[in-house]
């Protein structure tokens, strides 16, 4: 079972945050885990700011899969999300439509078994591989502990947003 070493140094997993600007026609392709997507869509903290940065910058592309969308849809129907939706005055359908607009969709043909603690997390890895992503953004400890997989860095929303804010780039 392939497992990348945790906490790979910058660049070791394909992400070079020091680069002033990406080469022409190059985008940093990013998969965000369901927990980050949920927070970004319903609250106004770090994940929200990250989603806004992804939408505004041409060199950052959000990538996801139908499986991750289905998981997000399921989570949005839970009581805690329903309460928040009522507060912000939106429906599940409106929130999902907003998210769908921001995403490039990929359909993984293979779901590698990587995350031993939670098989659902393997779908995040699969979307990243299928979408040729450079980064996975997650708040999930199981995913974050892996550090990287096939040169795809796995980072927290706070980490990537701090780098975007500090350097104006990903």
From TrEMBL:
<protein>
    <submittedName>
        <fullName>Putative toxin-antitoxin system toxin component, PIN family</fullName>
    </submittedName>
</protein>
<feature type="domain" description="PIN">
    <location>
        <begin position="29"/>
        <end position="140"/>
    </location>
</feature>
<dbReference type="InterPro" id="IPR029060">
    <property type="entry name" value="PIN-like_dom_sf"/>
</dbReference>
<dbReference type="InterPro" id="IPR002716">
    <property type="entry name" value="PIN_dom"/>
</dbReference>
<dbReference type="InterPro" id="IPR002850">
    <property type="entry name" value="PIN_toxin-like"/>
</dbReference>
<feature type="region of interest" description="Disordered">
    <location>
        <begin position="1"/>
        <end position="20"/>
    </location>
</feature>
<dbReference type="Pfam" id="PF13470">
    <property type="entry name" value="PIN_3"/>
</dbReference>
């Amino acid at each position: 079972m392939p497992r990348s070493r945790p906490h790979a140094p910058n660049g070791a997993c394909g992400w070079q945050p020091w680069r002033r600007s990406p080469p022409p026609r190059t985008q940093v392709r990013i998969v965000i885990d369901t927990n980050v997507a949920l927070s970004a869509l319903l609250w106004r903290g770090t994940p929200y700011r990250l989603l806004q940065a992804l939408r505004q910058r041409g060199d950052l592309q959000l990538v996801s899969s139908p499986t991750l969308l289905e998981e997000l849809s399921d989570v949005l129907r839970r009581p805690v999300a329903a309460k928040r939706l009522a507060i912000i005055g939106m429906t599940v359908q409106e929130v999902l439509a907003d998210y769908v607009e921001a995403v490039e969709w990929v359909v993984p043909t293979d779901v590698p078994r990587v995350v031993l603690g939670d098989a659902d997390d393997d779908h995040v890895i699969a979307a990243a591989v299928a979408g040729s992503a450079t980064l996975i953004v997650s708040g999930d400890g199981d995913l974050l502990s892996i550090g990287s997989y096939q040169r795809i860095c796995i980072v927290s929303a706070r980490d990537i947003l701090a780098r975007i804010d500090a350097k104006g780039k990903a």
